[in-house]
Amino acid sequence: MELNGEAGELANLEKKLWKGKAVDKSSLADETADVFIALFNYANSRKIDIKSALINKLRKIEKTRIELAQRNQNY
Fold this sequence. Notes:
mainly alpha
């Protein structure tokens, strides 16, 4: 699957960073863009309205944060 492959390439760059190796920012930016493109392609192929999905998810997260804050807990 395209998304898995692109996410794997980004993960490999992150592993290099964790090990203290140099990774140029343009490589990180390129791989991040590839992940976004693959994600948009996936959403499109599944007829998912990504804008609505993001808005709905952010609303759920905010609701959870508010509820936890009222109980003095962290998200």
